[in-house]
Amino acid sequence: MPPSLGHCNTSRSPSISRSTSSSSFVAAHAHSASEAEEDTTPSTSTSSSPRSRSPEPKGLLSPSDFLSPPSTNAWRTLSRSPSPLGLIPIHRQFSKFIHKHEVPRKLLHVSIGFLAIYLYRSGHQPARLIPPLTTALLPIGTADVLRFSSDSFNALYIRLLGALMRESEVRGWNGVVWYLVGTITVLAVFPKDVATLSILLLSWCDTAASTFGRLWGRHTPSIRRGKSLAGSLAAAIVGAVGAAAWWGWIVPGTPAYPDDPVGGVMWSGRLAIAGVEVTGGIALAAISVITGLVASASEVLDLWGLDDNVVIPVVSAVGIWGILKVFG
């Protein structure tokens, strides 16, 4: 068995072994579990001045080690704090703004939801959105492949885009890749209103779960590693409110367009449960609560180690589509 990282010298060579076992990685960073994204607020405290930074704790990888490619799913054992080991330079320089609160990343996440609403109301159809999204995915995915094979390119990439990255993405695939994969999938497979709503749930519920999980997660039970009851409740509430606004205001207020896909709006304003049909505000309230629960469940679900940016929109879309298919 290779020696534990806890006994490694922090001045070790950047060429950290590619075969480092996941178990050793977990053991070396077990203490960081309490800093998980939704369980606690990250406790890393760094100065904005590089000269005043404290020496890196023993047992952690040094910043020179960040260029090593990830082992299979090894990053999932690491805290989901954006940079718990301080491997992204800009996170150390602006620790509270970028590292602790993830402000740039969350702003980008939330803004995509508003962009999706704008595109929906403007009559942009999924069939016309998929090609440009796929075109964007190709260079972004290619850049990640280059990062894994070129240390210098990886360093440049992190220097330019590190403010939007988590440390797991330094060693693994960029979250934008998974975001695009999830978005393209739901737009290609599901009705227009369900697909767009699932993108809103990804944009807003994931952000709410992360924010409130960090603030209050330590005071509530843990559902699984990195997921707290506080974060899940926040996701459910935001999902329910978002669904109510979506089907109660945005969809009805969007004019019909000549090229609207057939069956593009699945929600009919009614639910039939156990032979009882409800309509109007009661039906809207019911589907909104159900949507919130589906969104919360998708945010907690660990599906074969897949990234949340794929799991949340796809699972949410499947759940909402299934409910409307059976009871709508």
Automatic annotation (TrEMBL):
Alphabetically list the UniProt keywords.
Membrane, Transmembrane, Transmembrane helix
Does this UniProt record's set of keywords contain Membrane? yes
Which domain of life does the UniProt lineage start with? Eukaryota
Does the record carry Transmembrane helix as a key word?
Answer: yes
Residues annotated as coiled-coil are none
**Which Gene Ontology CC terms are recorded?**
endoplasmic reticulum membrane
What's an example GO BP annotation here?
Answer: phosphatidic acid biosynthetic process
The name on file for this protein is: Cytidylyltransferase family-domain-containing protein
